[in-house]
Structures are given as C-alpha cells and as structure tokens.
Amino acid sequence: MGKFFVSIVKVIVAVVIINLLASFVYTRFDLTEDKRYTLSEPAVEVAQKFETPVIVDVLLDGNIPAEFSKLKAETIQLLESFASKNSNIKYNLVDPLEDSENPQETVAQLQALGLQPANVTVEENGKVSNELVFPWAMVNFNDQTVKVPLLKNKLGSKAEDRINNSVQQLEYAFADAFTKLSIEEKKSVAVIKGNGELDDIFIADYLTTIRDYYNIGAITLDSVATNSQNVLNQLKGFDLAIIAKPTEAFTDQEKYIMDQYIVQGGKSIWMVDQVNMEMDSIYAGGGEAIAVPRDLNLKDLFFKYGVRINPVLVNDLYFTQIVLASGEGNDSQYNPLPWLYYPMVFSQNNHPINTNIESVRLQFTSPMDVLENDYRKTILLQSSPLSKTDGIPRVVSLDMINQQPDRETYTNGNLPLAVLIEGNFTSMYKNRVKPLKLQNTLEEGPENKMIVISDGDVIKNQLRNGRPLELGYDKWTNSFYGNKEFLVNSTNYLLDNTGLINIRNKKVSIPLLDVKKIAKQKTKWQLVNIGFPVVLTLLFGLFFSYYRKRKFTA
C-alpha cells in the first residue's frame, strides 16, 4: 500500500514540475484535421508588424444563442493564436446591450456605426423567441478603428453552414483588418474616364471601400489625341485601372495607351456591356425597348488575351427580381417579379476571389468565349446550368414576366461571365503598325493579371435621395448580393503581393450538435452524464473496499 501512495506522490510532483516548466515555455499544438488554429504565414507577417497594443473588442459576450457561442469560441481561439505571435494583440469580450437603460437607443447607435444586428430565432423547450445579436469585432489601433463582421450569412444557409462559412472567413477578416491598420504605403487605383463610363456617384460605395487600402485617382483618355505620352506616363503611376461600363467606343490611340499600360505591368478590371439595354429604357418606352449591340472597339484587345464577349443576352432561370408598381395613387402596390435577364450567379468557390461569397447580381449580361492561348484563365463567375442565350437585336418587354419560360430550352448553361487572365502579356500591336508614337514601348511584358466581366452594372450602386447605397443592396426588394465582396476581392487579388487573400481558400469544418436530437434525447444524456460518473465512483469504492479486506485478511 505504501508503494501505491509513493507512486501517487511521484505523479503529482511530475505534473507540478511540468506545469511550472510550461509557464516559462509557451507552445500550442493544433490537432484539428483542418488546421484551423494554425495561422497562415501572410497572416502571421501582418500581425507581427504592430509594436504597440492592438485592442480587439468582440461584441459577443452575454447570453447569446448556441450557434453564436460556437462562433464566439472560434473567434477567441483565433485571437489567441494571433496573440501567440504578437503579444501586443489583445482582446476584450463586450456585451453591447449590457446595463443599457434604453436598449432600443443603443441598438440604433450601433446601427448608425454600421454594425447591423442579426435577428435570431431561438427555440428552447418548445418556446420560440427572437433575439438581437451583434456579431462584430472592433479592431482598435492608435486612433483608428476597423469593423470586422464575424457572421457570414449566405442565401439559404442552414445554421451549421452559416457557422462554417463564418469561421472559414475569420482568419482572413482579422488579417485584412490588421492590414488596413498597418498600411504604410498605399498602392494606387485609377478610374478611367472619357468613354462614357459610370459617374462617380454610381461607383461611390466601391471606391469608399477600397479607399482603406489604396489611393484613388482619375485618368481621362480624352487628351490621348493631343498628348498621348503624358497620358500614358500618368497612367503608369497607378497600379490598377478600373474601367466601369464604358458606353462610347475606344479610339485606336486610346486602345494602344491601355495596351501599353497592361503590357508594362498595369493591372486592370474591365466591366463592359456588349449589349445596349437598360431598365430605364424599358420604363421610358412604355414597357419595352430594343436591345442592340454596343461596339466599344475592344474585341481585338480581349481576343488577344483569350476572351470574346458575345453580343447576346443571358437568359437565366436562376434570376433576381425587379419591382413593378400596380394600381394608382394611394392604392399603388409594389410587387417583386422575376426578371430572367438579371441572373443570380452563385460562386463555384474555385478561387480566393469567389470563395465563400454571396451570390452576385448581374444585369443584361453577355456570355464570353474562353479561347485557347498561352495565358492562364480562371472562370470566376458563370451562369446557372439552367440558362441560355437570346440573340439581338430583339424587343425586350415587361410582358415576358407573364409568360411561363419553357424549361426544355434552357440547355446551354454554365456560360462564362467573369474571367481572370494571368501570364506574361504580349502587346496586341506586336508586329503591327502602331496608331501613334510612344516612348519606351514594350511588345513582351512581365507577369501580369487582368479581369474581364461582361456586365458594366456589376459595380453600380443604387441611390436614395441622391446618396449612394451599399453596393450589392437592392432597395426595391431589400435584398443583398455579393457584388461588393466580389469586386473588392478581385481588386485585392490583383494588387496583393503577400498572398494574404489566399487565406480565403482555407477550408474548415465545425461539427455542430443536432438541435432536434438534443430536444428528443435531452433526458437520456442528462442521466448518462450525471448517473454514469456516480455509478463508476460507487463501483470503484466497492472494488477498493473489497481489495483492502482481501489483502489485510489474507
């Protein structure tokens, strides 16, 4: 018996020594299959830049529903991983509604800051209640604050999918926030003007969002004819060019300027309509308008890089809605109705740009042919399998809302709508007569990237009372789409030299408890969890008593 107690003492001493040593030597072991607690190298690099405290306020404290408790735990684990790489990163748990004398006023103040709550339906013991939760974090550094959305809510997601989507984007969301706070020298983005592009107010939300990362300026191509070299020199001062829905054809001189900008390393995002059609034209035309081709004189430029935008319209059974008024005066009603020329495009999750994003809304878009050449091409967006093309010219009428589409004709689906092109770009004017003389031109360029999207309205935000709304929000149907995230991700990918955006490809899987099974088997598992340890203790006591009697009576 004495030897038994000596062994127990040795074990206790060993445990104490190990704990003392562990307090001096800190390490973590990630035993999860998906390595979700192992930070990516780009995330570690950006976290280690801070030499003074960064305080993260996580607004998930207090009594919150079970699924958000899981999100809270995963957020804390991630922040502890960041803190293990830089002790200046600290976090606090905050209940935004705690000790609030006027909760409604507090909610309004939080919403005014852009912190939208999640309305959660909670069912417990047969009772259903609604609770407001603010799934946000506020990252504070010096006098700057960056908001981090913790909840990733996608259309049609179940509770388990919603938490998986949210946890999957956590590392990138915080790394992105740390990047915004630590940027010392911003890259530059040029908004191209002069060919009937969208006015600034219609791309205001996109520009406001990327302003956290980049400097923004405008370049007008009107003066190419008189001072082409100066225009090219100014354009080369920018790292990325945004071409947002041009409506007037590019001259050969303007096209050569853009060609040289691209060949010499300038990134670009082209958002172009190959078909001239607008909802405003239909409304102004008494419910119908004629869709005709739009010639932008860019076919040969895109063809050189391996894509061709066809002058037809995509008709998709996975559609978004438009709102039409019926009745007159005070009796008017606004009804959301299907519109087959406004595709709802779901991501294939095949690239960091489109991974885990909400569906994107396109308007009067056209399909692209992806051609074989030396460039690497990735289809970022494509129509649904149940889509087809409608040729033009054609009359587009609101009467199509009342017509039942023939599902059997929707066989030409999965049409490319946005394509990423990468490679060592070659000038389309190689071995050709140049439309003007420029200094230091190149015919073979370095590794480069560009994105072509066959819809100019993908970047267009709506207005309310003359003020821009959030990109991707439709005020008529009160729906949110993923246009903003898609374009911001596209911009960051083109200009990211650190590989930070590749974190978005990280896959995690969070197993959650089945709520129905919990309700059905609650009593059973309560008895198991409470009764089994008691029974095990009694059996051990009986065995130990029997062992002692037998040993000392022998």
UniProtKB/TrEMBL annotation:
Keywords: Membrane, Transmembrane, Transmembrane helix. Pfam families: ABC_transp_aux, DUF7088. Residues 33-139 form the DUF7088 domain. The chain crosses the membrane at residues 6-26, 527-547. Residues 186-490 form the ABC-type uncharacterised transport system domain. InterPro entries: ABC_transp_unknown, DUF7088, Motility-assoc_ABC-rel_GldG. This is Gliding motility-associated ABC transporter substrate-binding protein GldG. It comes from Flagellimonas lutimaris. The lineage of its organism: Bacteria, Pseudomonadati, Bacteroidota, Flavobacteriia, Flavobacteriales. The gene is gldG.
